[in-house]
Design brief:
Elements lengths: L1 H43 L1 H16 L1 H12 L3 H21 L6 H4 L27 H35 L5 H5 L2 H14 L3 H11 L5 H21 L7 H20 L2 H7 L2 H24 L9 H26 L3 H17 L10 E2 L7 H10 L2 H5 L5 E8 L3 H18 L3 H6 E6 L1 H19 L20 H5 L6 H8 L1 H8 L7 H14 L23 E4 L2 E4 L5 E8 L5 E4 L14 E2 H8 L3 E2 L2 H8 L9 E4 L9 E5 L9 H18 L7 E10 L14 H21 L4 E4 L18 H4 L13 H13 L1 H7 L2
Parallel strand pairs: 2-3, 2-12, 3-6, 7-8, 12-13
Antiparallel strand pairs: 1-9, 4-5, 6-7, 6-11, 10-11
Helix pairs in contact: 1-6, 2-3, 2-6, 2-14, 4-6, 4-11, 4-13, 4-14, 6-8, 6-11, 10-11, 13-14, 14-22, 16-27, 18-20, 18-30, 20-26, 22-23, 22-24, 24-26, 27-28
Keywords: Membrane, Transmembrane, Transmembrane helix
Protein name: Patatin-like phospholipase
Organism: Aquimarina amphilecti
Length: 793
């Protein structure tokens, strides 16, 4: 009996095990079918995937575009810019949801040029087998066609919402959302939940559960109305403070839920809304966006009044529509038109890159000869010898180094120089400043200040860097602030994804690249406040012209006329990675600068007596990756091989230009020892370091997989800190967030406490600063005024 019982139990166990294995095999078989259908349907939504991928990279991993979320929140016209951004996202979501329908055979076979607008792409539904005997493979394929485009559209809006949460973490902001939600983990979880909806059985279970109540329709309607009210009301509460990023995140999340309820209840919605009008509106919106995009590319200055984030989405939307048209034409012609065009573009871009002169720098003839650095510094000291001897105490000789970091770095450098100039009534520039150097944005700020200070010096006048309150109604104090209030990013983004991309793959027509457009913007805004004696712009003058007739030969010696500070603009040679210095002097014998290439020496070896404009030097000093193209100078080769020297952002190599300042100090000390020994005790060499206060948290131990990339990411930051330590820490002027009172709050109102209403704006990295960020930077300037005053003593 015991034996029979054991045999029976074993048989039952074996049966249960077989059943479990069969279920497991059926599950894997079903998963395999589902996964294959997912891949098949993703291929039908390939342009949607690329669109979503670009938005994800831009809003999560590219510093200048991540910061655009901050600008969106800080915008002076928040109630206009956020609705525009949300509207573009909604148009993109509707296109991602509905565009793939046009690619099915039973739809595109009946589409013509005349009926495309207004065509209802639902013909494929008429030919579906709706019988319950249909195979799981067939049911899954049909279900996937319906749900996957909606899932991708929801994913786009979700990425946009969570990117705000991700940006808050990057900015070091903490609130309820960041404490409980990790953006990356949340995104992964939402993707998983959305994919569950693409499984037909799970979807049916969820649908049946929700439809058990007769009040479901009414509930969905109320929720939709509530979400719209929430989005609008949250927008009215914005105070431009960093805490309001939480409200922006909540608004975007509400937008996700609103679109979710609409897209997965579209059958009920379209029973009351004309289908023909629905699809007409979607396609017309897409083509209107494309037409607007093309118009902007003919007149790029029009986009300066549009938030760069909206320009980015508009540009990607337009590329989406171009791909949509190519796919649809390819379907009609039974020809893989998009694939062929893509391959052609890749190969043509490679072919034209060798011969195109689209990114060639504009060269200007010059008659200015450059002296050696030793000679220049000798005459700089000689012209100030009596001033130094007669100084009551020590005579400061200042060398300025400005760190890179987009417009905030440029404005910070410009503000510091402006303050010192105004505080000393011009003596800072005329007497004490020996050199200015920097990288990227900091170098641009140096150049903008130098151009005006040198311009008025040549006229024997003093500059005025402070805004006249009587003539301008503004809450800013410095002209530099108004110059940097301009939007220098939208045009670059538009050109990157529009006209320059077109030029790259076709080499057709001639027009200005985005680097040249940036130069024009700098020049135009600068000349609104500063002009030369003839009423012309200063920024587009030839670089060496600022040093014309500095030294005039008189028998065996030089007679010094005017000796301005040395403006040393840096850049990185793309092909070799070498540092290049755009310098008004030659420096081949300076030990600290040995190995650093002389830009003008290389340029004039191919183009004698040629130079570049100051604005061009600024541009190749601040060529942020992709946003600004590298500048090229075509080499004159004896062979038929065409080669160019290419120049990119100085920050790749040294993000503060400190080594250049060290080289200047080396020569200054040598000249003092050799020619002015009596001045040595009267002189105090001071390194003015204009930098961003960036406290980086030391990352946890990296995996062997991520360690190489982590090293590349941090090496520039580490190198900059090393150079700053060599320069010394006595005169570091750091930019950091500083509290201000919002313009919406009247500080004269009784009972208002500053600490209750003050905000501390986060300072964005890109080329577009909000007014609140600029006001915070001016407030920081006030707080470091005591430190700045010490530099002049």
């Amino acid at each position: 009996m015991l034996f029979l019982k054991l045999v029976s139990d074993f048989g039952i166990f074996s049966f249960k095990f077989d059943v479990m294995m069969i279920k497991l095999l059926l599950f894997f078989e079903g998963f395999n079918i589902w996964f294959k259908n997912l891949l098949r349907e993703l291929s039908n939504n390939i342009i949607s995937l690329f669109f979503i991928g670009f938005v994800y990279l831009a809003l999560w991993h590219f510093p200048q575009t991540v910061d655009l979320l901050l600008i969106l929140n800080q915008a002076d016209t928040f109630l206009l810019e956020v609705p525009l951004y949300f509207s573009l996202l909604i148009i993109a979501a509707f296109l991602i949801w509905n565009a793939p329908k046009y690619f099915y055979f039973h739809n595109y076979k009946d589409i013509t040029l005349t009926n495309l607008i207004g065509f209802v792409p639902n013909q494929h539904y008429r030919f579906q087998d709706k019988s319950e005997s249909a195979s799981y493979n067939y049911i899954t394929r049909i279900h996937m066609r319906k749900t996957l485009p909606r899932i991708l559209a929801i994913l786009l809006l979700t990425i946009s919402a969570l990117s705000i949460l991700n940006a808050m973490e990057l900015f070091g902001l903490e609130n309820t959302y960041t404490r409980f939600l990790n953006p990356t983990n949340t995104l992964i979880l939402i993707i998983f939940l959305l994919l569950l909806l693409s499984e037909p059985k799970l979807y049916k279970l969820l649908k049946d559960f929700l439809n058990r109540s007769a009040k479901t329709k009414f509930f969905v309607f109320i929720v939709s109305i509530g979400l719209m009210v929430l989005i609008i009301s949250l927008g009215t509460l914005n105070t431009q403070a960093e805490k309001d990023l939480g409200n922006l995140f909540l608004s975007n999340s509400a937008l996700v839920l609103l679109f979710f309820t609409l897209s997965f209840n579209s059958y009920r919605f379209l029973k009351r809304f004309p289908k023909k009008l629905f699809y007409t509106l979607i396609l017309m919106s897409g083509f209107i966006m494309l037409t607007t995009f093309l118009l902007f590319n003919f007149y790029p200055s029009l986009v300066t009044g549009i938030n760069p984030l909206s320009v980015l989405i508009l540009s990607l939307l337009s590329l989406f529509m171009i791909c949509f048209v190519l796919i649809l034409l390819g379907k009609k012609m039974r020809f893989p038109l998009l694939s062929i065009v893509t391959v052609f573009c890749i190969f043509s871009a490679k072919f034209f890159s060798d011969t195109s002169d689209h990114y060639q720098l504009n060269l200007i003839e010059t008659q200015v000869d450059r002296p050696s650095l030793d000679t220049y510094i000798y005459h700089w000291l000689k012209s100030r010898e009596n001033i130094i001897k007669n100084a009551d105490s020590f005579f400061p000789i200042i060398m300025a180094s400005s760190e890179g970091g987009g417009s905030r770095a440029g404005l910070w450098a410009f503000l510091v120089h402006s303050y010192l100039y105004e505080k000393s009534n011009g003596d800072y520039f005329e007497k004490h400043l020996l050199s200015l150097t920097g990288a990227s944005g900091g170098g641009v700020g140096n150049s903008m200040f130098f151009a005006e200070a040198r311009n008025t010096s040549l006229q024997g006048k003093k500059s005025n860097f402070v805004i006249d309150r009587d003539t301008q109604n503004t809450n800013l104090n410095y002209k530099a602030s108004n110059i940097y209030k301009e939007n220098y990013l939208s045009v670059a983004l538009l050109s990157l994804l529009g006209r320059d991309l077109f030029k790259e793959v076709t080499s057709l027509f001639n027009f200005k690249n985005r680097g040249q457009l940036l130069e024009e913007q700098w020049t135009r805004t600068h000349e609104e406040y500063f002009l030369d004696s003839k009423g012309k712009s200063i920024m587009d003058k030839e670089f060496l012209s600022f040093y014309a007739n500095i030294l005039i030969s008189d028998t065996t010696d030089f007679v010094l006329q005017k000796t301005p500070p040395l403006l040393l603009v840096n850049t990185t040679h793309t092909q070799t990675g070498n540092y290049n210095i755009i310098s008004p002097v030659e420096y081949s014998d300076v030990r600290e600068l040995r190995g650093m290439n002389d830009f003008f020496e290389g340029l004039q070896s191919n183009y004698p007596n040629n130079s570049i404009a100051l604005s061009t030097a600024m541009r190749i000093n601040a060529s942020f990756p992709f946003i600004t193209p590298v500048g090229e100078v075509r080499k004159r080769m004896k062979t038929e091989v065409s080669m160019s020297d290419q120049y990119a952002d100085a920050g790749y190599y040294d993000n503060i230009g400190g080594r250049v300042s060290i080289g200047i100090e080396e020569v200054l000390k040598r000249v003092l020892n050799d020619s002015f020994p009596l001045l040595k005790e009267k002189v105090r060499i001071k390194h003015l370091i204009i930098t961003n206060e960036e406290d980086r948290k030391i990352a946890k131990t990296s995996t062997q997989l991520s360690a190489p990339l982590t090293t590349l990411k941090n090496v520039r930051y580490g190198h900059t800190k090393e150079v700053m330590k060599k320069l010394g820490e006595d005169y570091i002027i750091s930019l950091k967030q500083t509290e201000i009172i919002p313009s919406s709050v009247n500080p004269l109102t009784g009972g208002i406490k500053k600490e209750e209403f003050s905000i501390k704006p986060v300072l964005p990295l890109g080329r577009y600063l909000s007014t609140v960020a600029i006001r915070s930077m001016e407030a920081r300037l006030d707080s470091v005024s005591v430190d700045l005053d010490l530099i002049l003593e």
